[in-house]
Specification:
Number of domains: 2
CATH architecture of the largest domain: 2-Layer Sandwich
Radius of gyration: 20 Å
Shape: globular
CATH class of the largest domain: Alpha Beta
Number of strands: 12
Length: about 300
């Protein structure tokens, strides 16, 4: 079977108090995109039960094979279930260390693939529990729906508009990854270095979403800048000129909303369609010009429908 693990973006990312388990509580909105990796998983004949043959192509993935989320997902389920021999082939398209959740998505979709192929009968709630063992933002990719996210990233509340359906399909997104790898642990340390104290983070900041605030999808995208900001954006751009440059490129694209996602280093611009062909044509033309400039800088670029 073939799966398409997607990248996600953050609409706002607010870092709250440090937890007893060493993680931080956060508030954010996670949105899945159409930028995807390709994962093929099937049973392997003439091999011992429980074995996993794993191959990876496309973009280079840092770290050892044993640390890959695909392998770790298999290890998690193989401890609980008697699995047949499996083969997994991952074609990597989403940049790593980019704040796009690609590794988390890959591992979570591997859990889903094993559940499907091996007929384990696990519910989405059960899959989310296993995904928590993979990483903080992994449970999101089980249901893979735009959600308000709290806790360390595992508490999810799906967001709908008044009609019950998202209007994100009406939007385009331009993602630029300036080829800078950001270590999440270091990014949290930079927050502390920059004197973002716990009291400031808890009582101030522009992210005011909660599980009842579904109406943001009905407001113009250009107004989101007054609501959603990423706490990591200032410390990261202060330390990495390419990230600052990528954001400036987006400002020249006339995007309706611009932000860095996750702990970086990818940045994105969202363009809201108006339904008028002339306007949409101009929007696409401006975005493509910026995409070309970013590509000439050697940056990774994705431009297409958001959802």
């Amino acid at each position: 079977m073939i799966y398409f693990p997607p990248a996600k973006i953050n609409l706002g990312l607010k870092v709250l108090a440090r937890r007893k388990d060493g993680f931080h509580n956060i508030e954010s909105i996670f949105v899945p995109t159409q930028l995807c990796d390709i994962l093929e998983v099937h049973k392997l004949d003439n091999a011992p039960n429980g074995e996993l043959k794993f191959e990876c192509s496309g973009l280079e993935v840092n770290g050892s094979i044993q640390d890959n989320t695909i392998v770790r997902a298999h290890q998690i389920l193989s401890k609980q279930f008697s699995l047949p021999a499996l083969e997994a082939k991952l074609h990597k398209i989403i940049p790593t260390g980019a704040g796009l959740g690609g590794g988390s998505s890959d591992g979570t979709f591997m859990l889903k693939a094993i559940n499907d192929i091996c007929s384990l009968g696990l519910s989405e709630d059960s899959l989310e529990k296993y995904a928590e063992e993979l990483g903080s933002d992994c449970p999101f990719f089980v249901k893979n729906r735009t959600s308000f996210v709290t806790g360390r990233g595992e508490i999810l509340t799906p967001i709908l508009n008044e009609q019950g359906a998202l209007r994100l399909e009406e939007m385009m997104i331009l993602i630029i990854h300036p080829r800078v790898h950001i270590n999440t642990s270091e990014a949290f340390a930079w927050l502390k270095e920059d004197d973002r104290k716990k009291e400031h983070q808890v009582h101030h900041g522009p992210l005011h979403m909660n599980k009842h605030s579904d109406g943001f999808l009905d407001s113009p995208v250009e107004k989101w800048s007054g609501v959603f900001m990423n706490d990591f954006e200032i410390p990261v751009t202060n330390r990495f000129e390419p990230v600052k440059k990528a954001l400036q490129l987006l400002r020249n694209s006339e995007a309706d909303y611009i932000q860095m996602t996750g702990s970086g280093s990818s940045v994105y611009g969202i363009f809201e369609k108006t339904g008028k062909p002339l306007k949409d044509s101009k929007m696409t033309e401006m975005a493509q010009k910026v995409a070309e400039k970013a590509s000439k800088e050697g940056y990774f670029v994705y431009f297409g429908a958001l959802a």
